[in-house]
Amino acid sequence: MTLGEYIKDTRAKMQLSQPQLAEQIGIEQSYLSKLENDKSLPSNEVFRRLLSALNVPLAVFVAAFSTQEQQQLTAIADVELYLKQQGNKQQRNLGWLVLSLSFVFALGAACFYAGFQALCFPERMYQYESQGVVLPGESAFVFTDWDQNFPMLTGTGEEMRQSMKNRVEKEQLMYQRLVQLTEYSFEHKGEYYIRAVDGGSRTFEYKSANRVSRIGNTVLQLLGLFLMVFTAVLSLGRKALLRF
Description:
Elements: H1 3-13, H2 18-25, H3 29-36, H4 44-54, H5 58-63, H6 67-72, H7 77-116, E1 124-130, E2 133-134, H8 142-145, H9 157-176, E3 181-185, E4 192-197, E5 200-211, H10 215-236, H11 238-241
Antiparallel strand pairs: 1-3, 1-5, 2-5, 4-5
Helix pairs in contact: 2-3, 7-10
C-alpha cells in the first residue's frame, strides 16, 4: 500500500469527497489529488493536519505499512522520528529480554547442578544406634566398656569365683537394660552424639551410611532442564516476542 492509496481508502471509509477532506486539512484539492496519486509527499505540517483530519494516530498510520513502505515514508519528519524511537525501544527491549533469558538459563543450570550433585537434598543417610539409657554418673559408653571395671583377678579360687559371679551379674543387669534405638540422619554427626532423655542420656554411635534416592533432586534436575530448554526456545524466537 502506498501513502496515496491509504489516504484514498480512509477518505472513502469516512465518506468524504476530495474537496471536503482538502478543506479539513487546509490544502487545495489539487494538492490532495497529487497526494492520493502518489505524485507528491506532504510536508510534515500537512502530514500532521492530514492525520488529524483522518482521525488516525501516528502509530496506527505507520502500522498500516510494510517495513519497506515505512522506509519510503521517512522523508516525513514525524514518521522518521517515530521509527527511530521504535527502533531504540526495540533495542532496549531486546537487551532486557536477552538479560532475562540469560538469568533464567543460569537459574535452570544451577537447579540442574544442585539436583545432580544433591546439594539441597543430601542422598547419604547415616545410621546411629543407641544401646540403652545411660544413668547419671555412668560412662557415656557404659554398654560397651562396662566390663573394663571387672578385670580378671589372680588369687585364690574363692576370689576368682566371686569375681566371675560379680561379672555375670553385671552382664545380666546390662542385658536387662538394653533398649536399642536406631536413628537416621542426612547429616553426619560424627562418630557419636549424646542426647538427654528421661532418667539419663543416650549415646548414639555411628554404624553405617547408605545412599538413598530423593525426589527433590529429581524435581530440581527436571526443573533445570525445563528452564534451559525453555530459554533456548525463546531465544530462537526472541524477535517474535518483541512484537508483543
